[in-house]
Write a structure and sequence with these properties.
- With 369 residues, this protein is α/β, with parallel strands linked by helices.
- It folds into 2 domains: 2-107 and 247-314, FAD/NAD(P)-binding domain, CATH 3.50.50.60; 112-189 and 196-244, FAD/NAD(P)-binding domain (3-Layer(bba) Sandwich), CATH 3.50.50.60.
- The chain is 30% helix and 30% strand.
- The strands form 8 sheets. A 6-stranded mixed sheet has the order 5-2-1-9-22-21, covered by helices on one side.
- The relative contact order is 0.16.
- It binds flavin-adenine dinucleotide.
- Residues 7-12, 33-36, 39, 42-43, 45-46, 77-78, 104-106, 124-126, 157-158, 161-162, 242, 282-284, 294-297, 299 line the site of flavin-adenine dinucleotide (FAD).
- Pfam families: Pyr_redox_2.
């Protein structure tokens, strides 16, 4: 009996568990180590913030998936790997032995460049924590009177969607407040996406009265204010940081090859380039031959090839390479029941685009419930 340990209930591992439930493995034991039992589906989180989805609608119950896959669930946080002894180190729990290991623990916004971000901002990752803090925050805003300044730092897809979702929800919740949502970003919004998408989103921000400060990196967060790169302080009663993804610090102690930003370096089969007993997928891994943005859509796509390759290795076969697509459809919800879709150089907007996104996301969730 060999032991496969999956660390993290990210999007790719959710598929691995589903596939093992559909087609059980012979002669292998599977354990999932998860920090959160209910894992969020990133595509629906801005919709949750906007009040369009309930908590249950956008979270997957890992306990049920594990039960179906005959996998053991260990509710714990992995803190390291002792590769010589082939053990996964856990916080406040004994270590776990493995024969084969797969890591899908996601990423967290890089807050290292913003002074006092950890003390002064509401973290967007872990997303489970964001959900709890957001509901608490909305509760407090119901009775807020007068000016209410909310700042979102980070102009990637996550930051853009979050700013629009926050604006939509607070207009409903904080009725007595004089609301101003501001998005600040050190470059342009939606870097790497089509110019047409940037134009549309800028027009939507303007129409909705959301302030957009591009080429304005945040430098320091104090209670009630944020200092930007030009030295100006801006009032902020609440700050959300959605800056570029950063890797878990414990990867550096594993001795595994990392990319230049500290993410696990894997080859096209998703195996570590330095240890063929360790696979990694999703945000936490960088496929050196096929670099792609850190986005949920790629983590989702890696699920089927990861499941197949783990099965192959357990059967004594060679894992097969996987080439992710280069151009991909990105649909950004604007929080108000509309969305912008972009692929390659085009972008379209409308209510039907939101229905399309909603259909895709709900269909995905149904597969893993
Ligand atoms: C506000 C926001 C909105 C976003 N919207 C979109 C979007 O619409 N579309 C899109 O494609 N991307 C979106 N993203 C990006 C998206 O969240 C990530 O790319 C995606 O979640 C990565 O998936 P993953 O499988 O790598 O990891 P995650 O989804 O982050 O899952 C990681 C899992 O591992 C667990 N875990 C973490 N550390 C440990 C540990 N040490 N031990 C055990 N378990 C651990 C966590 O509990 C979690 O269950 C958004 C991001 C944010 C912040």
């Amino acid at each position: 009996m060999r032991h496969l340990v999956l660390i993290g209930g990210g999007h790719a591992h959710v598929h691995v568990l589903k596939q093992f439930g559909d087609r059980p493995l012979a002669d292998a034991e599977v354990t999932l180590v998860g920090r959160d039992i209910e894992t969020p589906y990133s595509g629906m989180i801005p919709g949750f913030v906007a009040g369009l989805y309930s908590f249950e609608e956008c979270h997957i119950d890992l306990a049920r998936l594990c039960q179906r896959a005959h996998a053991r669930l260990v509710h714990a946080e992995a803190t390291g790997i002792d590769r010589a002894a082939r053990r996964v180190l856990l916080k406040d729990r004994p270590a776990l032995d493995y024969d084969l290991l797969s890591i899908d623990v996601g990423s967290a916004p890089n807050v290292g460049t913003i002074e006092r971000a950890e003390q002064g901002a509401i973290p967007v990752k872990p997303i489970a924590e964001l959900g709890r803090r957001w509901l608490e925050f909305c509760g407090r805003m119901e009775t807020w009177l007068g000016p209410l300044n909310v700042m979102v730092i980070g102009g990637g897809a996550g930051g853009v969607e979050l700013a629009l979702a926050i604006d939509h929800r607070l207009r409903d919740v904080a009725k007595a407040a004089d609301l101003q949502v501001t998005l600040v970003t050190k470059d342009e919004i939606l870097m790497g996406q089509a110019q047409a998408a940037r134009r549309r989103l800028r027009a939507i921000f303007q129409r909705r009265g959301i302030r957009l400060l591009e080429q304005s990196g945040a430098e320091r967060i104090e209670r009630g204010a944020v200092r930007l790169a030009d030295g100006q302080w801006h009032q902020a009663d609440a700050v959300f940081v959605v800056t570029e993804a950063s890797a878990a610090p414990w990867f550096a102690d594993t001795g595994l090859p990392l990319d230049e930003r500290g993410f696990l370096a894997v080859d096209a089969t998703l195996a570590s380039t330095g240890d063929d007993r360790i696979f990694a997928a999703g945000d936490c891994a960088t496929v050196l031959e096929h670099r792609r943005p850190k986005a949920g859509v790629f983590a989702v796509r890696q699920g089927p090839p990861l499941a197949d390759n783990l099965r192959r290795v357990l059967n004594g076969e060679q894992p097969q390479p996987f080439v992710p697509q280069r151009r991909y459809l990105s649909i950004l919800g604007t929080g108000d029941g509309r969305a912008v879709a972009t692929r390659g150089s085009w972008a379209i907007e409308g209510r039907w685009v939101w229905w399309w996104k909603d259909h895709i996301d709900r269909k995905w969730m149904r597969m893993y419930r």
